[in-house]
Amino acid sequence: MGLRLGGWRIGHARREKRTGVRETWVAAGLSGSAPVPISAQMARPGITLLFHTTAEGAVDPAFGPSFGCDEPFARIDSAAIAAVTNLYREVLPQGGAILDVMSGWVSHLPPEAPYRRVVGIGIERRALSENPFLDEWRVQDLNRNPILPFASGEFDGATICVAIQYLARPGEVIREISRVLRPGAPLIVTFSDRCVATKAIACWCLLDETGHLCLVAQHFAAAGNWADIRCLDRTPPGGGRPLYAVIGRSLGVVPPGASD
């Protein structure tokens, strides 16, 4: 038995590995669905809720350049950034075309990787223009328009870094990302325990880290055009901010009947 979250069942098992890592699995509540493994050590408390206030002390509803990701108190620390870069180094194909979704002033890509093309899409024009990793960029609010302005199969990999919690329509965006990726190409979604509460979707603020992993995995599965969905704890050793990732492989077009 396990906890159900939005039609998903969550359970725990202990793998016989020398690392002793705890394996959490998530299975869609559908007939014939295979479990999605989540390799994670869930020993930390829940997320840190952050509020941006005006000089008068009121919560500022207009806050949120690049969905709040570029504010100093909303960023992950240097060790977690290095963990993001190492994960990109392992998963993203060298020489490929990469799409950085909800991009900002920096993309945390490995600087030595010879990517053929890096494109960013976000809402802050100045941040995008100053991002040294981007060859091209587009200004678009994906909460208003989740349709990506790219051809099907145009990219070889995609990233969303510490921003998934600010998407109002995550299933639609993740489905669109799969469309613009070639079949088999990865999307890497990374996040930590920090959250600008006035910008994040409400359910994010109510969930712990296990819940966040399950929720993001559910977004992938609900999109209907992803396979090999994996969830990881990539928290750097020695303390600092935790770092989690959900990775899926694109199936390309949306299968008939797929829905959020």
Essential attributes:
eleven-stranded mixed β-sheet; single chain; 20% helix; 5 helices; Rossmann fold; alpha/beta; two-stranded parallel sheet; disordered N terminus; 260 residues
Describe what you observe in this structure:
The chain is an alpha/beta fold and 260 residues long. The protein has one domain (11-250): Rossmann fold (3-Layer(aba) Sandwich). The protein is 20% helix and 26% strand. The chain is built from five helices and 13 strands. The strands form two sheets. Strands 1-2-3-4-12-13-10-9-6-7-8 form an eleven-stranded mixed sheet, sandwiched between helices. Strands 5-11 form a two-stranded parallel sheet. Helix 3 (170-180) crosses helix 5 (209-223). The chain is globular and about 40 Å long. It starts with a strand and ends in a 10-residue tail after the last strand. Mean pLDDT is 74; it is low at 1-74.
CATH topology: Rossmann fold
From the N-terminal CA to the C-terminal CA, the straight-line distance is: 25 Å
Strand content: 25-35%
CATH architecture: 3-Layer(aba) Sandwich
Number of strands: 13
Rounded mean pLDDT is 74
Helicity range: 10-25%
- Which structural class best describes the helix and strand composition? alpha/beta
The CATH superfamily bears the name: Vaccinia Virus protein VP39
Provide a concise account of the structure shown.
By secondary structure, the protein is α/β, with parallel strands linked by helices. It has helices spanning about 80-90, 125-130, 170-180, 200-205, 210-225, and strands at about 5, 10-15, 20-30, 35-40, 50, 95-100, 115-120, 135-140, 155-160, 185-190, 195, 225-235, 245-250.
